[in-house]
Write a structure and sequence with these properties.
Immunoglobulin-like, Jelly Rolls, alpha+beta, ten-stranded mixed β-sheet, 11 helices
Length: 653
């Protein structure tokens, strides 16, 4: 969302312009009138080798006009691909008239600057009537809001790492102010004078609907290519925009969205993400899909260029495991089918699939805002971002740590993660934070996702309700979405605390108005995990089963005949390892059956046939008569006499 992001994107484009030297395009200054007669400054770039009119790509920027180096990068769009380009500065900034409102004039319910700009361009003699928008970060927010205003001449958009709901994605996460993001960005763009407005409006008031695309998904009527990263500050906003518009957009939008998610932070060009280098994950591979998107929708290119896949996402994994993570997955929807699995907080710092059956003593810690738990990685803008080791922080007395036993099999988590916490505080207001970590055999505790909730907004972000000190309540902590493979021998860990600063503003624990407190206090926090108040981590498990997670204190199971299939999820085929030597009569009486999610038998193989398969059965996602089966979760069951094993297979077309 800041200046480094803008420079990184243009640097990435420059990588592809090695053949273009000199400056052939023509550049003209523009003053574009809005419906209230305010003039917004812009630059028009016209191809230098062809005569118009041309299709136009519009970029609406909070950062001002482009530098000479960025001008040269535009050769890619203007001269090499024969587009006209308009780069406009937002209202009240860098030569544009009107009052600076930082996106609040970009959408609807008042000024409609994005709408007005698109429609003005369409009337110009150098425009052929087809207009696309491109934007990353702050520029992407402007593109999302313009799409929500539904200008008739907007044909398509490409949006990268952008918030679709400014309140929840950028300003207040679970009601908690994102200090490390907002304060730094406002300072970088010389907008500190606007901060008091947001400080005076910390709750979700109706005014924020003007910058909430999700309230207008049915108004969007253009195909959008959405691109983001799992460790990006706005990842959930991009996912929400994609799913909302794909399901309920207008006739030119519903079913015509596309999504790419890599293992990236907000700086898409970094090859190393936090403390992990993900293989085969270069953002440069996204350049061609962006070019194809514009060529199809602005130049009537071959639709086959963009038809598949609808969703392409990177399944992250640890560096010390070759599989099942660290690879790209293609799908026809998001999220893929999964099973919400509860991992319960238990005594002795255990995280278990077995719920508590009796009373267990709660865990207690003190939250001192003057000694907040420091931020170490995560979805940050100016702070160090991405997966980083949390082990040092986990030794603090104000961090509760809950871990599974070492996994006996791989376990893939794909989708939105939540924590349901039963807790109390002796303060009238406080925060509860959570971190999901992947614990390596060597003790590193690598951050996967984190989140937080402010107690006064525990029931709704638009209604404050202070705590009754000592009263037990339920807190839902949203950790947003991930695609993460946990490898055998690793542990799944949940850290619970009350701060993560400066990523999130530390709560003074006094109940006073936001940033108007007169003092701070230490809060005594109590987390419950007994039979009546079973606190838990809720994971969308895509493959693997809870059998991969042993009960607390349990050891590794005996050798199994049915191995973990790979790849899983799969598109065309998957190999199911089978070792029948440990079964009676070498398993000649064994049956391998595959069932769909409704329990219908779709495929069956006998043990005698399996013995000739070379140690495994390759399933091509077809039923017994060769018909292709649809995407979904399938149950594979191997049985021989009284012995039976099963596991889930995930087919994604």
């Amino acid at each position: 969302m800041g200046l480094p992001m803008r420079k990184a994107i243009f640097a990435g484009i420059l990588l592809l312009v090695s053949a273009g030297e000199g400056r052939a395009f023509n550049k003209f200054p523009l003053q574009i009138p809005m419906s209230d007669s305010v003039l917004l400054a812009a630059d028009l770039y016209q191809p230098g080798f062809t005569k118009g009119p041309w299709p136009v790509i519009l970029v609406r920027s909070v950062y001002g006009t482009l530098s000479d180096a960025e001008d040269r990068a535009l050769l890619l769009l203007v001269d090499l691909f024969d587009y006209a380009l308009v780069v406009q500065t937002l209202r009240g900034r860098h030569g544009s008239g009107g009052a600076d409102s930082l996106f609040f004039s970009d959408g609807w319910n008042g000024h409609r600057d994005g709408y007005d700009t698109v429609e003005w361009i369409a009337r110009q003699p150098w425009c052929n009537g087809k207009i696309g928008m491109w934007g990353a970060s702050g520029l992407g927010i402007s593109a999302y809001l313009a799409a929500g205003a539904a200008p008739p001449y907007l044909s398509c958009s490409v949006v990268l790492v952008a918030a679709s709901d400014l309140y929840s994605d950028a300003l207040f996460y679970g009601g908690v102010y994102q200090a490390g993001l907002v304060d730094d960005w406002f300072h970088d763009v010389n907008a500190d004078s606007l901060l008091p407005f947001f400080i005076d409006h910390p709750g979700r008031e109706p005014l924020y609907e003007r910058v909430n695309l999700l309230s207008r998904c049915d108004s969007v009527n253009v195909p959008i290519l959405h691109i983001s990263g799992w460790h990006d500050i706005f990842i959930q906003g991009v996912l929400n925009a994609f799913t909302g518009i794909q399901a309920s957009g207008g006739p030119n939008a519903a079913g015509r969205q596309k999504l790419i998610v890599g293992p990236w932070t907000h700086d898409l060009l970094k090859s190393r993400v936090g403390d992990i280098a993900y293989p085969s994950s270069s953002f440069e591979d996204c350049i061609q899909p962006m070019i194809d998107w514009f060529n199809v929708y602005l130049k009537d290119g071959d639709p086959a260029l963009i038809q598949t896949p609808v969703v392409k996402y990177y399944l992250m994994g640890p560096q010390d495991a070759a599989r099942p993570g660290n690879r790209w997955i293609e799908s026809d929807s998001w999220p893929p089918p999964s099973e919400i699995t509860a991992f319960y907080l238990r005594g002795n710092s255990w995280l278990s699939v077995d719920p508590p059956e009796t009373g267990e003593d709660p865990d207690v810690f003190d939250a001192d805002p003057g000694n907040a738990v420091p931020t170490a990685g995560g979805r940050n803008l100016s702070l160090p971002a991405g997966p980083r080791d949390q082990a040092a922080l986990e030794s603090r007395p104000d961090v509760l740590v809950y871990s599974t036993a070492p996994l006996t099999d791989s376990l893939v988590v794909t989708g939105r993660i939540r924590v349901r916490l039963h807790a109390s505080s002796d303060a009238p207001d406080t925060d509860f934070s959570a971190k999901l970590c992947d614990v390596y055999p060597d003790g590193r505790s690598m951050l996967v996702a984190d989140g937080i909730v402010q107690a006064r907004y525990r029931h709704s972000p638009d209604r404050e309700e202070l705590l009754s000190p000592g009263s037990i309540d339920t807190f839902e902590i949203d950790l947003w979405s991930v695609a993460q493979a946990f490898a055998p021998g690793h542990r799944i860990r949940l850290d619970i605390s009350s701060s993560n600063s400066p990523r999130f503003e530390a709560n003074p624990n006094t109940g006073e108005p936001f940033r108007k407190h007169t003092h701070t206090r230490t809060a005594r926090q109590t987390v419950y995990h007994d039979a009546d108040r079973a606190s838990c981590l809720l994971l969308p498990v895509l493959n693997g089963s809870t059998g991969a997670v042993t009960s607390q204190g349990g050891g590794l199971p005996l050798k199994k005949a049915l191995g973990r299939n790979f790849p899983n999820p799969f598109n065309s085929e998957t190999r199911i390892p089978i070792d029948l030597s440990s079964l009676p009569a070498r398993g000649r009486d064994a049956l391998l059956k595959i069932f769909d999610s409704n329990g219908r038998l779709v495929r069956q193989e006998s043990g005698g046939d399996l013995l000739g398969q070379g140690g495994g059965f390759v399933w091509d996602g077809r039923d017994a008569v060769g018909r292709e089966l649809p995407s979904g979760v399938y149950l594979c069951r191997l049985a021989c006499g009284s012995h039976a094993e099963s596991q889930r297979l995930v087919l994604i077309r």
